Amino acid sequence: MAVDSEAGRLEMKYTVIIEKAPANYAAYAPDLPGCVATGASIEDAQKNMRAAIEWHLRSIREHGEPVPVPRAIATHINVA
Fold it and tell me: Can you tell me the distance from the alpha carbon of 13 to that of 16, in angstroms, rounded to the nearest whole number?
């Protein structure tokens, strides 16, 4: 989490996983169950996922539910 110095608000950084699907790319955020998006390219999936996360968080806040704290981490592991 970080504070956006210009707006003075808390900024969350969620891990997003993007996977190649047969016809497009699919994205999801492990810390936000049910929050998914797709796109024709990786860039489209990222753009659509940003919008999905914003909408998802807005809905959570409107329903008075606690906003999930980002906890997931993704990494790459090289194997021979």
Answer: 9
Give the pTM.
0.84
> Do the beta carbons of residue 68 and residue 13 sit within 8 Å?
no
On whether the CB atoms of residues 31 and 15 are closer than 8 A, the answer is yes
Q: What is the pLDDT tens value at each position of the chain, 80 positions in all?
A: 444 456 667 789 999 999 999 999 999 999 999 999 999 999 999 999 999 999 999 999 999 999 999 999 999 999 99
State the Cα–Cα distance between residues 33 and 45, nearest whole angstrom: 17
